[in-house]
């Protein structure tokens, strides 16, 4: 049996790419991301923290209503490799229940906080029915507000078919992330890319 792993890209011949957003839902920045994708006619995946779903339930409901995917990003954003596996399971299952309340659907994908997933965490996620999702553009460090130009520069090398891109819509001032995503979405749509959810991407090809 193949070992569970973190998926950063899916092998596909189609011009499709998946934008993902961590640490929301946020009352200020998540709606701005939704507007960008509404205008572009695309979909995205939002890796939500359980505490933030409880604080901003209406925003989470708006994400689902507009056809985007909601993925599990734990309840309180701990480093799962630094806590007992039972506590990690509770972090994931608690948020799974919250997402199901919002969507009425099974949750298919998971992203570990800090992208910290060892074999034990990967096995737990697989056991819970999740694909564990990483990203190609991990050098953007958009959570540090490094400037729109930096975020764009560190993302443009990864605008490839089947790619998964990571940005943040929660936990701080995300205005730079919004502006960078707006620019990238315009470029990709102009280049003939379709913007899809991670779940759609996984259904198209083989993750790697």
Automatic annotation (TrEMBL):
UniProt GO cellular component terms: membrane
Boundaries of every NodB homology domain copy: 15-196
GO biological process terms on file: carbohydrate metabolic process
InterPro entries named in the record: Glyco_hydro/deAcase_b/a-brl, NODB_dom, Polysacc_deacetylase_ArnD
Keyword Hydrolase belongs to the record: yes
Keywords of this entry: Hydrolase, Metal-binding
GO molecular function, one term: metal ion binding
Domain of life, source organism: Bacteria
Pfam families given in the database record: Polysacc_deac_1
Presence of the UniProt keyword NADP in the record: no
PROSITE patterns (UniProt xref): NODB
The protein, known as: Peptidoglycan/xylan/chitin deacetylase (PgdA/CDA1 family)
Organism expressing this protein natively: Paenibacillus methanolicus
């Amino acid at each position: 049996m193949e070992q569970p792993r973190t998926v950063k890209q899916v092998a596909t011949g189609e011009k499709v790419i998946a934008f993902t957003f961590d640490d929301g839902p946020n009352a200020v920045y998540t709606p701005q991301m939704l507007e960008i994708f509404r205008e572009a006619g695309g979909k995205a995946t939002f890796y939500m923290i359980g505490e933030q779903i409880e604080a901003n339930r209406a925003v989470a409901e708006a994400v689902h209503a507009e056809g985007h995917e909601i993925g599990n990003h734990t309840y309180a954003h701990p480093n799962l490799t630094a806590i007992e596996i039972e506590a990690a399971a509770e972090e994931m299952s608690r948020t799974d229940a919250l997402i199901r309340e919002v969507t009425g659907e099974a949750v298919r994908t998971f992203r570990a906080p800090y992208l910290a997933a060892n074999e034990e965490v990967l096995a737990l996620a697989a056991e819970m029915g999740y694909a564990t999702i990483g990203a190609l553009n991990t050098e953007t460090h958009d959570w540090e507000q490094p400037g729109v130009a930096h975020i764009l520069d560190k993302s443009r090398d990864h605008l490839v078919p089947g790619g998964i891109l990571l940005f943040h819509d929660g936990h701080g001032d995300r205005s730079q992330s919004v502006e960078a995503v707006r620019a990238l979405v315009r470029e990709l749509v102009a280049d003939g890319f379709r913007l899809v959810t991670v779940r759609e991407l996984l259904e198209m090809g083989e993750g790697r």
